[in-house]
What does this fold into?
Amino acid sequence: MIIALAGGVGGARLAHGLARALPPGELTIAVNTGDDFTHLGLHISPDPDTVLYTISELADPERGWGLKDETFACMEALGRLGGENWFALGDKDLATHIERTRRLATGETLSTITADFAQRLGIQHTIIPMSDDPIRTIVHTDQGALPFQDYFVRLHCAPAVKSLEFTGADAAKPSPALLAAMQSEKLKGIIICPSNPFLSIDPILAVPGIRSWLQGRTVPCIAVSPLIGGKAVKGPAGKIMAELKLDTTPRAIAQHYHGIIDGLMIDHADANDSFGECLITNTLMRDIADRERLAREALSYIERLR
Ligand code: FO1
It folds into this structure.
């Protein structure tokens, strides 16, 4: 059994590859919920939904988030009424948020709802939030403290990042299925997907018990660098690293994960910056075959490190 830590589009793509490479039931994907927020009265869980839609092959291939063949008639109508439409909730995607919000109001946890959605979408692996407790990413910027989606979507990541805060993390617990996977005797390794280390993985590591478990791990943990040729494939990882005065190199990623990973998979384009325990390969995932190939390479790397 493998645990994958994921968030965002790059993370979801490798998680999809792992879901294809591993037999049913042998993968637990713990997903970042620091990006969650309440919008238009609905509970939105962008990263869990991106993982659900990507693995069920329902995601929009260009955007990476939301559903393919989507329409935005509700957002257009909302805009005509002067409502908030800066966060594009597609007509079909709205069903996910409506049903999640309804079930949360009846007292169900985000974990059971997410795992159930996964099953209903035909996914034969466990997809769960990192925690059922509310953790919200606050981005401290040159324009002040911003809730995550204000920074990411409304302001298009333009403000310069000074630091990140994960409110609620101190009082949070890992979700029950994640805790069970962490303690499972069947656990063979942990894979940190090529997600943004600061925005997507750090919130997971901020949940008490997760970082210390990784530090004391008895099975290998590897990460896949989200950088190719010193740039993020998608999203603001490179921009944020520069703003935090870090080099945009695999070495800086490895330094960030110091003490919790045994190896880093990096792209050929970054080979001149390779060091210590690195696996140089092709990390760009252009299609489903690439996702599965990279996933199989990550699983072999884990086997080699065991
Ligand atoms: N990202 C955008 O850049 N613009 C959007 O309007 C937007 C809407 C949206 C709706 C549902 C959903 O699940 C995700 C959505 N995302 C949107 C993506 C999302 O905000 C980010 O990708 C993640 O939070 C960062 O990983």
The chain has a mean pLDDT of 97. The first strand starts at residue 2 and ends at 6.
